[in-house]
Design brief:
- By secondary structure, this protein is mainly α.
- The chain has one domain (6-65).
- It contains three helices and two strands.
- It has helices at residues 6-14, 31-40, 53-65, and strands at 21-23, 26-28.
- It has a two-stranded antiparallel ribbon.
- The longest helix has 13 residues, at 53-65.
- It is rod-shaped and about 65 Å long.
């Protein structure tokens, strides 16, 4: 459902980002806890500029050169 490795899942659990329950040797997650975790990880549009700074800068330069 999350598309992550077990190691990452265990890290999220260990760091308290995702609630889990242990029954003997078995670890379980509640569906509503996973859905809440997903909702909290939502990316706000326009906040990923740091991933492609050259593209944004080139686009702004092109608009300025065109007079816009």
């Amino acid at each position: 459902m999350l598309g992550i490795t077990l190691r990452t899942l265990y890290r999220f659990i260990d760091e308290g980002e995702l609630t889990a329950y242990k029954f003997g040797r078995v670890i379980r997650l509640k569906e509503e806890d996973v859905e809440r975790f997903i909702d909290l990880a939502r990316i706000v549009p326009g906040t990923l500029d740091h991933l492609y700074p050259d593209v944004r800068a080139a686009s702004a330069d092109t608009r300025e050169a065109a007079g816009g």
